[in-house]
Write the structure tokens for this entry.
Amino acid sequence: MRRGHNLGAVGEFNQAVILDLIRRAPDGLSRVEVAQASGLSAQTASNITRRLIDGGLVREGERLITGPGKPRTLLRLNASSRYTVGVHLDPTVITYALLDLAGSVVADHRARTPTAPDPAGVIADMAHEISAILERQSIPREQVLGVGIAAPGPLDASRGNVLDPPMLDGWDVVPLRDALSQATGFPVVLEKDVTAAAIAELWVDSGPRRDNFAFFYYGTGIGIGLVINHEVLRGASDNAGDMGHIMVQADGPVCSCGRRGCVGDLVVPHRIVQRALAAGLIAADSPVDRADFDDVDRLFTEFTVLAMRHDAVSREIVMGVATQISRAIVSIVNLLDVDTIVFGGPFWRRIEPALLGAIRHLVNTDPALIPKHPIHIENSGIGEDVAAIGAGCLVLDQSLAPHTSALLISR
Amino acid sequence: MRRGHNLGAVGEFNQAVILDLIRRAPDGLSRVEVAQASGLSAQTASNITRRLIDGGLVREGERLITGPGKPRTLLRLNASSRYTVGVHLDPTVITYALLDLAGSVVADHRARTPTAPDPAGVIADMAHEISAILERQSIPREQVLGVGIAAPGPLDASRGNVLDPPMLDGWDVVPLRDALSQATGFPVVLEKDVTAAAIAELWVDSGPRRDNFAFFYYGTGIGIGLVINHEVLRGASDNAGDMGHIMVQADGPVCSCGRRGCVGDLVVPHRIVQRALAAGLIAADSPVDRADFDDVDRLFTEFTVLAMRHDAVSREIVMGVATQISRAIVSIVNLLDVDTIVFGGPFWRRIEPALLGAIRHLVNTDPALIPKHPIHIENSGIGEDVAAIGAGCLVLDQSLAPHTSALLISR
């Protein structure tokens, strides 16, 4: 049921709109431009920018003389006024990203995720590392807005619990959000990894193609972050974004779910490594399983280097993967009518030269594609730490970005 | 990019919120209850209800004495103050539904869609039938808010064009919206059929399970209407909701798209009829194609009657269809994390006794299902005319319902 409109929230919403405008204008904006772009009155815009300057979030830059009138002072984000820490818990690696208010990465760090099932130990390590990052950068704790943590689903988001994610043994119902908050003393927000990645894209890249898009996350596993009408789609229990069991190959191997040819079972790095091993393209001393993280990583790199030679055998493997991913993408585009798919994640950059063009061609020429507009297939502009950066952006987003839902009176 | 908040729209938004509250309370609401439920001040709520009464949309009913204070006057929707006409263009049948302001069907009508490709003739027929319905009900034209038309996708919604829907020969780029508006003199809104059906569900049933749901439309073809956070998901070009090419059976027949076992090719009525014919359960003089609409309709009914006997052969067909639909539903639930699937459409009611329980069981026990919450599998409370009713509700929705997007300043 809709609730009435919350007049008290209008000021905060408009403040978030203006901060968002200034944040997205690296060359600065004058007060007149802020008013024009926001659609607010000059007086309202001016009052809000004053508050933002007083709070240290925005600073006045150089004066711009454009005509006979009063010179215009450019407003810029004061990026070093606030910070957040994003953490990405992956079965293989824990990634940390310290972000400033502009969403720029000030520092980052990676550590191998312990394979022994010890959530309490992992959380203690995380808290220690967060403190160490802030100390190394000499950032006082009061300038930190909070910590965002991205974790594989399924999650119980309302309680802040990680449920039983695949490949993280011993992580059954772990209260990650509250435990990390207690260990660090910071407010913590928990988000599904693919949703965090989509938030990073929204926050860092504001191009016109970013209203309806899907973020294809290519890591140890795959997933899809969804953005509809410029807001992330989280779903009824905040677990949206699982695409692993979309069937894409009728004669594919039997998945753990009992169906054949599920995309999440076919296109992940350890499967590509297994196919390349079976074809004799690369070699290993013993069979490689998905749990052999280091071997998978090394052999995957070997394969992607070989694939650049475009020999028939590696090309067959690459085209198979491109076809499988494209079919899943077409199912998603048909369902949601998104017009852009952004690809990223820890394993993406290595295989992208071989895959991206093929996927672009296959998706846009697929006879099963329903929408009549072109589907843009793009690389993420963000690096391999996209989920950690997204987790940090999540804190920025919750603290600062305008959400129309905030305009409704809460129950 | 977000734009600022439109203060001028607040009044209209709050008016829509209050009208929505009164509409959803068939037993009436007092002014105090309206203020409490909307979260608005007593004065604001009272001013708005006064405007609604003056405009004839709301009427004052009996007075309620609940204590020593002033008796409370109950406010009720004046359902017969405004009307809309919903039209559903289907390859088989054109359905008309005259709705009052409460979304109740005042009158309806069905006509066979001409098989000859003649869009202009069909549009002229529609205009004629709309006038005839209004005349038969003695409804003056000035009480009609507009006409909503639901059509199969793909659509060019911005231009109001129907593109090349399957099974509607000759309907390549037909300006349906503007042509029908010209022929009737009413404003016309065009919507994809499955989205219209989802709007009908939102409008008519406001239960707690209606925030994140998918409407499975079972007609000559299948489709899925999506509601996320209580608003319909239309997508970048308003063509969201196509699920036909989700693969669900590895050894299924080859679809027109070249893949095997696409759900939209497997579970539609003419395929069930063909399977029942092949199994000797029912008989026809000649082979039945999807274009033999009358034969498919009659034989489908014959099969569904037989299927109630639960013999081994019909049970095998039914369980095959239930499995195929369930697998597609699981893909959609995993992707979007909806918690409810509502089933309806012209062919649904006949096969529902055989299918609904099986689908409920299969979806909720599927090893591929990711979210941990139960998935509610329900029948639509609306009849077989759901898309026509939804098209009418679309006009009500656009005219009356609160949308947070209306709070943003338009470009």
